[in-house]
Write a structure and sequence with these properties.
With about 475 residues, the protein is α+β, with helices and mostly antiparallel strands. The chain has three domains: about 5-175, 2-Layer Sandwich (Beta-Lactamase); about 200-375, Transcription factor LuxR-like, autoinducer-binding domain (Beta-Lactamase, 2-Layer Sandwich); about 390-460, Winged helix-like DNA-binding domain superfamily/Winged helix DNA-binding domain (Arc Repressor Mutant, subunit A), CATH 1.10.10. About 35% of the residues lie in helices and about 15% in strands. The chain has helices at about 10-20, 30-35, 80-95, 120-125, 160-175, 210-220, 225-235, 275-295, 320-325, 355-375, 390-395, 410-420, 425-430, 435-440, 445-460, and strands spanning about 50-55, 60-65, 100-105, 130-140, 145-150, 245-255, 260-265, 300, 330-335, 340-350. The chain has a five-stranded antiparallel β-sheet, sandwiched between helices. A five-stranded antiparallel β-sheet has the order 7-6-10-9-8, with helices on both faces. Helix 5 crosses helix 10, helix 12 (about 410-420) packs across helix 15 (about 445-460) and helix 13 packs across helix 14 (about 435-440).
Amino acid sequence: MDIFLPHISLESLHHYIRTMTRSMAVRSHRDMLEWLQGDIQSYLPHQIMIAAWGDFETGTVQHDILSRLVGVRSNNSNHITITPMLLKLFKRWVEFGHRPYAIHGDESSFLIPDSGRECKISEALRNMRCVMVHGIYDERGCHDCVYAIFRNIVPFSLQEHDTMALMLPYVDTALRQVEHLPHQVRGASVANIVSESTDSSVAPGNDLTDRDHYIRTMTRSMAVRSHRDVLEWLQGDIQSYLPHQIMIAAWGDFETGIVQHDILSRLAGVRSNNSNHTTITPMLLKLFKRWVEFGHRPYAIHGDESSFLITDSGRECKISEALRNMPCVMVHGIYDERGCHDCVYAIFRNIEPFSLQEHDTMALMLPYVDTALRQVEHLPHQVRGVPVANIVSESTDSSVAPGNDLTDREVQVLYWVTQGKTNYEIGSILEISELNFRHTASLPPLPTKLMKMAKTIQNMTGYR
């Protein structure tokens, strides 16, 4: 793939890297607009971007519109005009094999038909003779995402198709961190601020072949569809940039301890379906807490300092044994406002400590890693779609709703009960004694509530 980056100067490459890593610092629509209409214009000139997500088969989609044009705003949009256009763009993206594509000139006229319900946005879109489209499937959030950029200048080149493929994970990561607008369905509070890395030392080597290899490696993240694909990618070319033996990806509500995880490694027996929540979940909660304390920046733990992560347990497994032999761990994360959860990624190795340059590499590569894993179908033991915490809060049965005085701790216990955990396991995961757990689970009239809520969650998530 002949992408533009190998043919630019090292100084320009550093500018590109600084521009892309700023995606991790976006926290508002204003930030997003300034980023898109600022440095991004050097790579993909456009006047309007529309991001859409949801179920395109049923037509249940939401969208954001980002532009400096007067009146071209999300809250001014007319769904009667915009939604049919988005469904057409998505359908064509599928027909193009989920690859970037462009529409130019008169061909674009079918997108916005004449309508009795005219608005500034439809008027502006009719004046945009060129549109380029690409998308991502989010298995974790159970929805498709499509991004369309419009302009009224020169047609999009084939080189810009490749640029779109290379940049989309950063655009998607940035927009998922932005708090939803009032008219959009959302569930969590203001997005966490993830600080940016501005150190250009993470750039691929000065050799053009090195830069070409880096670009090919990153763009392969968009082709990942299975756990085998992501494992081969992580344990293959990614090792050139971040050598490691184990990666653990975790997502969910870290405040309540309701998290899920994937484990990716070539080590024998180190697999997600062999993991012990009693061991893994407390470790993930500690790693997340420290990531917050570090200002949402990448950080590393080395040597004896990592010993607190995996405590001695009577329930040993291959994974906890392997992790005890990994004295070096590096952690970074992303907040997903669209999916209403935090995501944390930890890589482990038993070789030399992680360098400061590798911290920057982690910041630069994480959007690609996150994009790859969100496209992978969930394992049988993982809950898909709506977070369990939301399912509890949105239960339509008023007799089981959290408004009936369930504490955060009781909701945590409830979740692990629905996952079939024993008293001992729940106590270990939540770091409370089995005696305290029994007390929590026996407070009247909690047992009846727990059973009814557990049944509701099992029905809604498909867990048996």
